[in-house]
What we know:
Largest sheet: none
Radius of gyration: 16 Å
Order of helices and strands: HHHH
Shape: flat
Amino acid sequence: MDRLVPIFDSDALPIGILVLIVFEALVLVIWQRRNPDSALGKPNVARIVSFLGAGGSLVAAMIFHRRPDPSPEGFAIAMLSAMVIHLWHIAVLLRR
Length: 96
């Protein structure tokens, strides 16, 4: 367990999560474009970006919050963007 502490003390973990979110979005968009008749439905970039964007914004808020010199403005903007993107996701789902 002591070997994991440096990971939790640095920004490596949340930045890695953000990279994975972007990678997942790219893979989903490419996969849906190549398989438009899949069970996931037609390619819908708005649905993918709105879903993963809200989570990415929450991870960004975590980065701003846990800095040695926290940024309340950055945290507030990231949380506000998470809320706005989440509401956008709800609107995208209701239009289906």
